[in-house]
Amino acid sequence: MNYNKKISISCIIATHKREDLLEKTLNSILEQTFHPDEIIVVDNCNSKKTKIIVEKYSSENIKLKYVPHNYGGRGSSSRNIGALYSDCEYLAMIDDDDIWKENYIEEVIKFLNEYEDTKILYTWFDYIVENGKIIDGKKLQKNLNFNAFLIKNPGAIVSNLVIEKKLFFILGGFNELIHPSYDRDLLIKAIKRGFEYNVLKKNLVLMRDQNQKRDSLINYNNIKGQLRFLRLHAGVLSISIYVKFFLKLIYQLLFKATKNV
User: Are residues 136 and 20 in the same domain?
Assistant: First the structure.
């Protein structure tokens, strides 16, 4: 591809003992029609198996970094660490069990060249359900204000996010204390500071439906994370938003918790 503007992209994968799925994710990146400039695999388990897999994929065609750490934490922590190791202008995030369609990076670079002021970009995505069937995912729309992200996520996840590295650090990266709401929180922080997001309206990511379900499981840490998220943005919440938030939490406690017993 020949474009006026050279755009460098780091692909950051946060991984946690899912070697078989990580291989599929790495394959989807290496089979891109246009490669990212580097792949950074951040392993919060310091797993020998994961390291062997990453080394297997090392080649002269693409820079691949393996970053182990023992700080624990969830994927948000590993993604923040990965950003520190990036040598590129943009960060493209992906979960270790999701897949990019083969033209993901090519379409992203084409879009960033056409809309040069874009600092935050989301694509649309599909879900892979347990039987392997692919169904439509959420289709994020442009120009939503931060209120649209306070109660639910309209499609701003992690595996469909590309963000300017400089802005990522300005925003403080992902808040590691508010799992599972850190993806929404990042965008809310950006909108509050006057940064707009853009949307590439093509389904370019395959997200595993069970991954989203796993993140939404109700447990003590999940509840703490959601309440921290609420307190963090309390200054902009109306009474109706408070009511909707707690109704959502009660619904999760009454129905989702019982389903996972």
Answer: yes
